[in-house]
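A note from the maintainers: we've had questions about how concatenated examples are separated. There is no special marker in the raw files; a new sequence line simply starts the next protein. For clarity in this README we add a label.
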Amino acid sequence: MEFPILLIVIIVLALIFDYINGFHDAANSIATIVSTKVLTPFQAVLWAALWNFAAFFIAAYIIGEFKIGNTIAKTVNENFITLEVIFSGLVAAIAWNLLTWWFGIPSSSSHTLIGGFLGAALMHAFMMDYHDVAAAQPGLGFWDTCKEAFSQVTQQSVVKFDKVIPIFLFIFMAPIIGMVISIIITLIIVHLYKRSNPHKADKSFKRLQLGSSALFSLGHGLNDAQKVMGIIGAALIYYHVEMLKDPVYLGIPAAGRFDYFAEHYLWVPLVSFLAIGLGTMSGGWKIIKTMGTKITKVTSLEGVSAETAGAITLFITDHFGIPVSTTHTITGSIIGVGLTKRVSAVRWGITVSLLWAWVLTIPISAIVAGITYLLVTFLS
């Protein structure tokens, strides 16, 4: 089977995005373990990368499904998915990811990808409606045609809100859940170890941090690698249904096509998890400084609490198939351990800056993807 060139480009770009996601989000997995000097940065990225990739075997052979990938593939109505839409969304996501990485801003790679996908699909729907309106009412001026086309887009269910609304809600819910769990875990640990020798307790927590960081890296792999898998899945499903008119795919209800794809294209999740692991090995040193020290100073005890809380949050959201930001999750968890000391232990100026980056990620990615789609269709 020969794939179209654009489909091959999409697969390559998606894996490049996955790799960038790995080094962009490396700090999420290793910031606390590096700042507490449990591992050197080089040891830490190797450790995190190992567990990022190990998540593939958990998802494929223990959980037995890829719920988050399925959610991503279905954020857009399949009637408005094309290879050009997916390509434009990926270009926008890569551009925003590299920009935020360069400036050391721990934004969400996940929401960048989702925003790009949604923005390109909405622009695709708008352009189709614009041409339809212009053909049906040639006497309308440019702005009136745009207005009518926009009105039609709002009535077409381009975005699947049953999938997208939970994603938006968890921009705020994931860090809050991580924060609450980390506060509870920290208070429990402090109570259990209050009569322990501080030096011995610190040595114990440094050993425990190896386990907690592994758990968080496992959650990171489960969560983030599946998003790229979902995008590649959407492209391959479009290829089989719309381009090949494959009777096998056409005979499967739309809701079941992703599971069939995952079963028959097992190399897609495999290389998705591998790419994010390789990206993590490349590290993201600028962001590590923000995550590990600028938000609040973190001890090994607090590192265990933050990473365990982050891992629990990611496992919960993976169970329900809700894509969340690992950046948001670990940030909320680190804030939680800071709050157990005192409110002023958290550097709220840094935190507010991060919040703005999070809120703006989806709309900016959507706008860039929309413009990219216009350029792609104009050039083609």
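[label: protein 2]
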Amino acid sequence: MKLRMENNVKFAPIRASIALLTVGGLALAGCATGSRGGDAATPSEDTELLQTTPEATAEADSVAWNSTYGELASLDPVKAFNYPENTIVSNLCEPLFEMQPDFSVQPNLATESNTDDGKTWVFGIRDDVTFWDGTPMTVDDVVYSIKRHLDPAEGSYWGGGVVANIAEVAATGENEVTITLQTPDYTLPSSLSTIIGVVVQQAQREAAGENYGNPEAGVMCTGPLKFTPGNWKQGQSITLERYDDYWDADGKAMAKEVSIGFVVDPTAIANGLSTGEIQGSYDVPLPALNQLGSSETGELYAGQGMQNMAIISTGEGVFGDPAVRRALTRATDRQAIADTVYEGTGTPARSVVPQSPWDAVEETSPGIADLRDEQLPDLSFDIEAAKAELEDAEVDLTQPIKIAYPSERSFYADILNEMANGAKELGITLEPTGVPSAQFGAFFSDPEARAGYDGFVTTNYLSAPDPLLHLISVAKTGSDQNYSGFSDPAVDAALDAAIGESDDAERAKLTVEAEALIMQEQPWVPINDLAVRMYMDESITGAPASFVYLYYPWAADLGATA
């Protein structure tokens, strides 16, 4: 199939469509259902990004997948805060609520949730769930698992934000758990579809001690696939086996085992997928797209994403001035970045929140898209408008803007060079500065590592499919991804009003108001929203195409095509 050529995406209004201009054979279809598996519609003139792929019709004895970002560090869910860990743990350890391929959130290990004030939440817990060793999951396991995030000794990577708002977790009935918050939060079930809501077996965690989550001890969970000690061959692969007594018959794994390799070299990944040595992979490397797009032995899919590429301000230097950030956004040809750097699998971002989660909100709150069109600032490529924005700058524009990127990822240099071209049009100097990846990671945790830089790149993603939670993470005073010390009382008040609103439609409106305030200041400069890039060999199918594979048991949907 040849890829349909589309016109460039306009900046406002924007919906879920994406300009896919350069990669031959990229599969797209209309939005599918949120159920596991599901049929992908036939491509048409109005094609949109996929949520699912054609449902598997038969079991598979074994599937060979790949983890593009490499080997996981631990199976411990509270240490799962990155692609390698989450992509695997999502198939093993289940949360109370489960994110679906259409970005809705459904009860899972929890049967229901109830609150009168947004502070006291009562959850019904399933009584028919067993761990892989056959023992029943209890409310005590649920309470223990959530409290692990509150225990400094556990070192949870999820200890801030939502977790910091938890005042108490208690079993209040045989099949009931109550979570009491310090301040109202009507989005809590969404947060419990992430690692925060994952349940592990208390007895095995305590018995494993310091070995918990490593190849020898592993974990004990309730998911459709299980880990058996000895099946993690460090430096090579990890094999997950089907749990035949899984509580949800409809969600039982289609493959008897899924082996996930740790190949990171783009050429090796492309060759492995082309030859069938690797049958599938998420996060297909950009350099591999052209080769795989013309493959005759598999399909390259573009799915609805929750990722975007952005430049984060450190709050220092010329880039610390919001007028400069606004000007650079409008002076950067972000469509050119989407077309060339991302090989057509990106689209110019209009916000720090990617478009697809907002499209899901539109399903339950009709009219929210029009409201965003009215309230969000225009970020379209316009040099004259950029110059006008720059007139409000209050910094010395003769000083260079130093933006850091991981030097091993050359595509970031291409993006920053495009931004530097726009800066030059404004009479500003922007200096892309490569930093070894081993050092670059510290930019997200250590203010000293960021010293001397005006900003740094990120390919970021929403942990839960709720735009409000991401906006809080990025722009609330003192929040976990607020790396510049950004603080605006009006923004804080707007975010607080939204999260404390019980009505879904009204909360969506309040979220748009907060988003508009944040985008006027742009603590992050949004560059491109990114589609999911997934490849599957012709022998397998079923994996969700949308960006849910960090929290949804995607490997359970994998099966044979015949």
